[in-house]
Amino acid sequence: MAKITFNTDLCKGCGLCVSACPKGILALDTNQINKKGYSPAVMTDQEKCIACAFCATMCPDCIITVEK
Amino acid sequence: MAVVFEKPKALTDVPLHYCPGCPHGIIHRLVAEAIDELGIEGQTIGVAPVGCAVMAYDYFACDMIEAPHGRAPAVATGIKRCRPENVVFTYQGDGDLASIGMAETVHSAARNENITVIFVNNAIYGMTGGQMAPTSLPGQVTQTSPYGRDVKHCGWPIRVSEMLSTLEGPEFIARVAVNNVKNVKNAKKAIKKAFENQIQGKGFSLVEVVSACPTNWGMTPQKALEWVESDMLPYYPIGVYKDRSAAKEEK
Q1: Which domain does B96 fall in, by range?
Q2: Is B121 exposed, middle or buried (0-12, 13-18, 19+ CB in 10 A)?
Q3: Is the pLDDT assigned to residue B251 strictly greater than 80?
Q4: Is the ipTM of this complex over 0.90?
Q5: What is the CATH number of the domain that holds B79?
């Protein structure tokens, strides 16, 4: 099973991972505000993740770790 | 569980100061991945520019030096000639490399200095607040061209890769983009090749990375990457413009 972890404190909420995800399972969580004051990206359905690492490839802040 | 993707070791843990969605972070990571994969972190010296990436010396774990505006290739030339055993790269923006630093760039390419140049082209001066750059597109609205860049008055944008590829000197000139996953992966290959060329002593390698500036373009990060595809890439087509070794092999 694929596992994605975000270093949420450093997320700037740009959403590039959200638009890169082929499964559409990432989202910006508007109920949360991180240390930097942004709504961070979160995984909404871990089961559907295929560990393609497209999100991590497009993340400008290098906050995503992908394991499989 | 096996790790598929993690932060490269050649990047420090210092949080990047760039605006949300700025592709500088992606390009930093590609350079760091190339350094990691070639196992050259201990012998690499980077030269940071003036511009948004001025703080790059905090982000790369290798030795770094800060050059005056546009003079990174001149500083890198000095380092490489004194310490040929080190791998020397510069990381420059378009306001740095293509305007005030054009002379240093052209002459270090003409001399075929054995250095690697990473040139980030986002068609605008980012750090100073979004003024027109030598690479701003015709009609592009910036702080200093509020009615759009008028080519009769301001001239035409400079295609650095095409221009440098007409010189005899340089070994490898390529233009890549970071607007989608496929282009990022191709950009990685070109950047790694630019470092390999230097290790093999082949000479001057420049990779122009077509990037975006969501903040100063006044767009969302997603819209900015779409604009790269629709407006920038037609004027700045991606591809390898010069690869002397590959050309020799074909003969």
Answers
A1: 24-243
A2: buried
A3: no
A4: yes
A5: 3.40.50.970
